[in-house]
Amino acid sequence: MLIIGIAGGTGSGKTTVVRKIIESLPKDEVAVIPQDCYYKDNAHIPLEERLKMNYDEPASIEWSLLAKHLRELKEGRAIEMPTYDFITCSRLRETIHIEPRDVVVVEGILVLTDKELRDMMDVKVFVDADADERLIRVIHRDCIERGRTPQMVIDRYIETLKPMHELYIEPSKRYADLLVPQGGHNNVAIKLLTDYIRSLLKPRNEI
């Protein structure tokens, strides 16, 4: 099993890169583990307080559970991946059944900040994009998918996203094996990445 870590700022195009990796490989060969599913369960905290919490720092993620699930997949055991509701900022009861696959992609803004997780990865990728492009994508996504107004998104960007990006996400770039500038639009870098993944899979599949 290959574990591929894909990090990058919010709205950088990570999802597009992951989708193109999946499309380039045989069907059902890739499992995707989003970091966002592993936010700590804060259901015991009042909603008003949950909405004000910082979800862009490493302390917001249950890294121990994510690492445990990766180890189980690598050992050939299926997992029940948690799910998260971004409107109520709480973990849901429903889980997603994930079977072991030849390639497991761990995707999220902070996945390169955790050393235990990095040590489990065969390939570490950082998807880069200009700050203004990321902000536009975040406004579009959060207004449509998370019920926020443009002003709410901009305020959150200034107060939390930007400082957390500079403090945690941008520095994690130094751990990457491959940088993908221009986000999901960089077809050359994505092809290099997918070709490399296939080259690593081939010897394993021949054993």
Shape: globular
Strand order of the largest sheet: 2-5-1-6-7
Unreliable spans are none
How many whole angstroms does the radius of gyration measure? Answer: 17 Å
Compute the number of strand runs: 7
Helix fraction bin: 40-55%
**Beta-strand content:** 15-25%
Q: Total number of helical segments?
A: 7
The description of the largest β-sheet is: 5 strands, parallel
Order of helices and strands: EHEHHEEEHEHHEH
Mean pLDDT: 89
Instruction: Determine the structural class based on helices, strands and strand pairing.
Output: alpha/beta
Distance between the termini: 13 Å
Summarize the structure in words:
By secondary structure, this protein is an alpha/beta fold. Helix content is 43%, strand content 20%. The chain has helices spanning 14-24, 47-50, 63-74, 115-120, 131-145, 150-169, 187-206, and strands at 2-8, 30-34, 79-85, 90-98, 103-107, 123-127, 178-180. The strands form 2 sheets. A 5-stranded parallel beta sheet has the order 2-5-1-6-7, covered by helices on one side. It has a two-stranded antiparallel ribbon with strand order 3-4. Helix 5 packs across helix 6. The chain is globular, with a radius of gyration of 17 Å. The model has no long low-confidence stretch (mean pLDDT 89).
Summarize the structure.
By secondary structure, the chain is an alpha/beta fold. The protein has helices at residues 14-24, 47-50, 63-74, 115-120, 131-145, 150-169, 187-206; strands at 2-8, 30-34, 79-85, 90-98, 103-107, 123-127, 178-180. 33% of the residues are buried.
